[in-house]
Amino acid sequence: MTDMSYLDGNMLDGPLRDIFAVDLSSAIGRCDHCGTTGPVAGLHVYSHAPGLIGRCPACTEVMLRLVRAPDQAWLDLRGTTYLRVPMALDQPHPRPL
Amino acid sequence: MAAPTTGARMVAPLTWRVARLVERRVETPSAQTLVLDVPGWPGHEPGQHLDIRLTAADGYQAARSYSLAGPAEGERIAVTVQRVPDGEVSPYLTDTYAEGDPVEVRGPVGGWFVWRTDETAPVLLVAGGSGVVPLMAMVRARRAAGSRAPFRLIYSVRTPDDVIYADELRRRTREDQGLDVAYVYTRAAPEGWRGEPHRIGLADVNTHGWPPDLEPLCYVCGPTGFVETVADLLVGLGHPTRRVKTERFGPTG
Fold first, then answer.
1. Given this model, what pLDDT does residue B60 score?
2. Structural domains of chain A, count
3. What is the residue range of A49's domain?
4. A91 lies in some domain
5. CA distance B246 to B227
6. Residues of A with CB under 8 A from a CB of B
7. Which residues of A fall within a CB distance of 8 Å from B107?
8. Does residue A92 belong to any structural domain of this protein?
9. 0.70 cut: is pTM over it?
10. Which range in A75-89, B100-114, B122-136 is most confidently predicted, on average pLDDT?
């Protein structure tokens, strides 16, 4: 696909933050089709469908589909093997009790 | 609230807040800066954006993303809006929206296309048209934080009249030590300009950017085709893709 009508994954941040409590734009996703890994912010996003389509920047396969209705959201991640989300270090105590 | 530089940024759920216009600044014939007062604004990082939502009398809603143009001053934030002639949102914001009028905003959003003021690496900013807005937020934040990180901005515009923040950029190149600005004109260049109007190319990025050995952070923002071209040039010059962050603008209006 050579058309230039797509946007960045950066713009998914607002719509995804309706659903998730973390900022996913820095999360690393793996394309289930070609195995490329990269930040969600790097996806190519097509917004003229009824919803948002996030495609792998390497192989252009669909990794994410997000469709909103007034009272619900459909999130389809079948093109994504995993999302690796950076987490704050989980260390409840300074040393073993 | 300082965000941790590593780890997930747990953030309060994003809610739509009511903002009001407190000031309007004309930047170019087609671009204006709107200063909004947003009660409860939680602060933001340079490079982040927000969504602005308009609701018509019949309930029809349209939302658009706009980059934040600089650091927040308390609960006051600024966005710069480029008027898209057939747009649903931008003509209202530039032509009709009046001081004191409400508008809904949601933000800040975006944690990737962000420059943190504690970074010390050299920074290359490459702007196409109104793509300068989030990059100007980084330039302004650098000064506000007293950062010494060396900054270079390459700013591609159609004509000299299209330069947003022209006076401020002139002043900052004199006063903000370590900031250089180079312009690329695509349609008409100013008097005394050396060279012909052209689209940004390898020579511009090579001459005005940083060599990859200095391991700079690169931020590219503008229309999709522009960003594609510049990101490919930077990667071709040897910059690792993870150091080249991009934000593509769509003509959504």
1. 87
2. 1
3. 11-84
4. no
5. 7
6. 4-11, 13-14, 17-18, 21-23, 25-26, 39-42, 47, 85-89
7. 14
8. no
9. yes
10. B122-136
